[in-house]
Amino acid sequence: MNGYMGEGKTVVVTGAGGTLCAPVAVDFASRGYNVVLIGRTREKLQRTADMIAAGGHGSMIVLADVRDEAAVRDASERIRDRFGACDVLINGAGGNQSAAVTGTDEFDARELEDGYPGRGFFSMDMSVFRDVVETNIMGTVIPTRIFARDMAHRGRGCIVNFASMNTYRPLSRVPAYALAKAGVSNWTQWAAAYLAPAGIRINAVAPGFFVNERSRKMLTTPSGELTPRGEHIIHNTPMHRFGEAEELLGCIRWLTDDDAAAFVTGITVPVDGGFLSSAGL
Ligand SMILES: NC(=O)c1ccc[n+]([C@@H]2O[C@H](COP(=O)([O-])OP(=O)(O)OC[C@H]3O[C@@H](n4cnc5c(N)ncnc54)[C@H](OP(=O)(O)O)[C@@H]3O)[C@@H](O)[C@H]2O)c1
What's the rounded Cα separation, in Å, for the pair 12 and 160? Predict the structure, then answer.
């Protein structure tokens, strides 16, 4: 654990008010990093800041939409004024939207009819589809471009992106999200190769299934039972359970440690209870 201490380094965590990245931010703070929390909703970020404060540490909240280049640049300037250049960037902001999820696993001929009440690919609102792609892809690319520039000036830095099981094979019903998370992994490889001469390592973590506010509705019923989709996932996860956010911390500590992971760049690491290893039968 001592090898993972921050010694006054600065980490910027986007999506820091969320299920997975709130514990990530708390973990960095507990290891002596200056922690910057980025998101769009102050209340969510404040909850994370309160958890960090409960451990006796401070943090900085910066409201910014990661799709908005000017807002992220402004954020980076405020962060630089306070802490200097960012050492570590965690691109955690992202996720899906329910209006970009199809109601069936496969094409249903009824979706070609006027007034079809369900949601198929053909009746999906393309502006929401585009928004999911933009949030996950441009919401990763934009902070990378802005914070990595400072890192490149200093000749060192480290970035972790958030991929998904969809990176490897698209799950049913989530076309925009699957497309975007495949893109995140591809981008991780491109950026790692491009920025290696600048002394910057870029990797991704691919969480398996962790229940968050949005996925809870897809995976569990209001009474807390598993939905058929939730059951399917648990059946296909050899450890037969969902992950806990804290179970990502070891991987992120390793990937962001310049000694332990000195020669590691461009990879996407699954933390998935074995989901990718199982053929499901
Ligand atoms: N949970 C899982 O099972 C799972 C699995 C694989 C991958 N992931 C990925 O892991 C990351 C974290 O997921 P999570 O489960 O913690 O989701 P979450 O609880 O919904 O947290 C995501 C956070 O991102 C922020 N965010 C979303 N869009 C943003 C934007 N445009 N600008 C700034 N902040 C934005 C949200 O806050 P605001 O809305 O307030 O901005 C939210 O706090 C995401 O990239 C997700 O796709 C999750």
Answer: 11
From ligand 1's centre to the CA of 47, what distance in Å?
Answer: 15
Is residue 274 predicted with pLDDT exceeding 80? Answer: yes
Measured between alpha carbons, how far is 137 from 115 in angstroms, rounded to an integer? 33
pLDDT for the residue numbered 268: 98
| CA 214–ligand 1 middle distance (angstroms) | 10
Range of the domain at 205: 2-98+138-277
CATH code of the domain in which 80 resides: 3.40.50.720
187 located within any domain:
yes
Tell me the one-letter amino acid at 43: E
Ligand 1 pocket residue status of 270, Cβ below 6 Å:
no
Mean pLDDT, the chain, rounded, equals 96
Q: How many domains does the chain have?
A: 1
Strand stretches in 40-134, DSSP E? 60-63, 88-91
Nearest atom of ligand 1 to the alpha carbon of 14: 34
Quote the ligand 1 centre to 154 CA distance (angstroms): 29
Q: What is the pLDDT at residue 218?
A: 86
- The predicted model gives 239-258 an average pLDDT of 98
Nearest atom within ligand 1 for CA of residue 243: 3
The verdict on residue 120 lying in a domain is no
The Cα–Cα gap between 214 and 226 comes to: 14
Our answer on whether the CB atom of 139 is closer than 6 Å to any ligand 1 atom is: yes
Would the CB of 92 count as within 6 Å of ligand 1? yes
83, two tokens: 């802490």
Q: Evaluate: CB of 243 within 6 angstroms of ligand 1.
A: no
Q: Which residue shows structure tokens 């909850």? A: 47
Which residue's alpha carbon is nearest to atom 47 within ligand 1? 95
pLDDT tens digits, residue range 154-186? 999 999 999 999 999 999 999 999 999 999 999
Q: Is 126 inside a domain boundary?
A: no
Q: State the pLDDT at residue 3.
A: 62
How many CB atoms are closer than 10 A to CB 183?
Answer: 18
168 in catalytic set? no
